[in-house]
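2024-03-11 09:14:02 INFO queue: dequeued item SMP-30/Gluconolactonase/LRE-like region domain-containing protein, len=111
2024-03-11 09:14:02 INFO validating residues
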Amino acid sequence: MAIPPLPTAGNVYVNDDAECRVVKLGAGSGAQTEVPLTGLHTLGMDTAGNLYVVDVDTIRLLELAAGTSPPIVLPVNVLNGPQDVTVDGAGNLYVLDSGSFGQVVKLTLSR
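2024-03-11 09:14:37 INFO prediction written
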């Protein structure tokens, strides 16, 4: 899936599958923030710095808005087996869903 240009805030995000978490390393400070999850997950980021996480085991799509925590569980009820997420330049989310029919689901978030 295509990845849009990322913001230059300097934060680093680590997808730690072994520990079932996403780790954010703050730019300059090295401060560490953890987002615990239950299973394999994938990451997508929009141009505003919002991070989107697919938690495969719980069939959830999470948003970690730039500069905030904890993550918000997005109210998406059309997913049956989310596997991957990416975001286009307009802020639309695309979720690879391997559930019943194997499809890519486009989600438009209202802001």
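2024-03-11 09:14:37 INFO annotate: The chain has no helices and ten strands.
2024-03-11 09:14:38 INFO item closed
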